[in-house]
Every structure is written in structure tokens, then in C-alpha cells.
Specification:
Elements lengths: L3 H12 L3 H6 L1 H16 L7 E4 L17 E7 L5 E7 L2 E8 L4 H12 L1 H17 L2 E2 L18 H4 L4 E7 L9 H11 L2 H10 L10
Antiparallel strand pairs: 1-2, 2-3, 3-4, 4-6, 5-6
Helix pairs in contact: 1-3, 5-8
């Protein structure tokens, strides 16, 4: 769980997004944001290895504010896919799956969805996350990908470019209570079946994605 001071810090950061301010307030970031995130990640090691993102944005190729206005962590299992949580002023984001599939991974995913038996296994793997309140990300393609008809019975799955299930919670008082960590663990565990399906039916990328 994050204390109320975590949201106070994020509000101040939004108004003072510069490196000097952050250095002067780094202890607050570590105590109120990063510390609770590390404690939560310690309860997720059965899903994979926790990895934390640096608070600084990479400005070499994309201009913007120097600091990320959130705290986030990925839990990376053996194989492919990841589990993820993020706290920002937009809410608490919880999810998992394959967020940046390589071209060959997307091709194998679409081939699996084209096959009725393997597509049914995908839906079964997605069901626990759906039943827990997570949603599959919206399709990004407007039409069927090349090689598939627009009247395909599973067109919405074929139009996906990211294979992730997620839920965004609004900022509410329960974020500051022990049930917060329990809920995040419960929701991320519900994505485990989807991640296992991805490992079996999609597999590793032939080439690194660079992300």
C-alpha cells in the first residue's frame, strides 16, 4: 500500500518537474513511492523477477519532462511476457501479458487465433483475468491484418497489436490500506494463465524488439 504522502508527492512533482526539485525531494520519493513498490514486489517473486524503472525519462530521442510522473515495476518471468503495476495521478494500473510483441511473435499469435482449437485455449487462458475485472487491451488495427479476411470470426483478436490484460483503478482511500497489496497480487496472479499461453503458443522473438 502507498501512504497518502505518495499522492502528495506526485501532485507536487507534476508542478515541479525538474531535476533540481527531484534531487531535493529524493528521500520522499524513495520513502513514499519506491519503498512501498519494492515491498509489494517482494510479494510477487513467485511470478517472476521484479524490475524497477528509473525515475528519469530518456530525453535523447523524445523531448519532454525530465522525470516520470509515476512509479512502476515489472515482474518478469522466465520466457516471455511480464506483469506490471504503476501508480500515478491517473490511478493504479495493473496488468500483464506481452506489451511489445515482435513481428514474428504477432505472426504466431495470429496463426494461433486463426486455429479454432488454439484460439479456444487463448480464451480459457484469458478468462481468469476477465473474471477478476481485467480487460484485454482494445485492438489497434482498424482492419484485419494482411492475409486474414475482415469477416473472420475472431477478427477482434486478430486486430490486436498488444496482447495484454489490464485494469486501471481510480485513486481511492483503499490504496492506503493493506488490502491494496492483496488486490494487486490477486489481479496479477489472474494474468498468469495468459502469460503461460503466450509462452506456449507465441514464444520468444526471433530478433530483439529493442524495448
Amino acid at each position: 500500500m502507498w501512504p497518502p504522502q505518495a499522492l502528495e508527492f506526485l501532485r507536487e512533482l507534476e508542478e515541479n518537474n525538474d531535476s533540481a526539485w527531484f534531487r531535493a525531494n529524493r528521500e520522499r520519493y524513495d520513502r513514499f513511492l519506491l519503498g512501498p513498490a519494492r515491498e509489494l514486489a517482494g510479494r510477487l517473486t513467485h511470478l517472476g523477477e521484479p524490475r524497477f524503472f528509473r525515475p528519469y525519462n530518456n530525453l535523447r530521442f523524445r523531448p519532454g519532462p525530465p522525470l516520470k510522473e509515476h512509479v512502476a515495476a515489472a515482474v518478469v518471468p522466465k520466457g516471455i511476457g511480464a506483469f506490471y503495476f504503476e501508480l500515478s495521478l491517473d490511478g493504479l494500473l495493473v496488468g500483464g501479458g506481452l506489451h511489445h510483441p515482435a513481428t514474428d511473435q504477432l505472426e504466431r499469435f495470429r496463426a494461433a487465433i486463426d486455429d479454432g482449437r488454439r484460439a479456444a485455449a487463448f480464451e480459457r487462458a484469458l478468462a481468469p483475468a476477465h473474471d477478476t475485472g481485467l480487460s484485454l487491451i482494445e485492438p489497434e488495427l482498424n482492419r484485419a491484418p494482411r492475409g486474414y479476411p475482415n469477416d473472420h470470426p475472431r477478427i477482434d483478436r486478430l486486430r490486436l497489436k498488444r496482447i495484454t490484460a489490464y485494469r486501471r483503478h481510480p485513486l481511492e482511500p483503499w490504496l492506503h490500506k493493506p488490502r491494496c497489496d492483496k488486490l494487486i497480487v490477486y489481479e496479477l496472479e489472474s494474468v498468469a494463465a495468459l502469460v503461460r499461453w503466450l509462452n506456449t503458443s507465441v514464444g520468444a522473438a526471433a530478433q530483439p524488439t529493442g524495448r
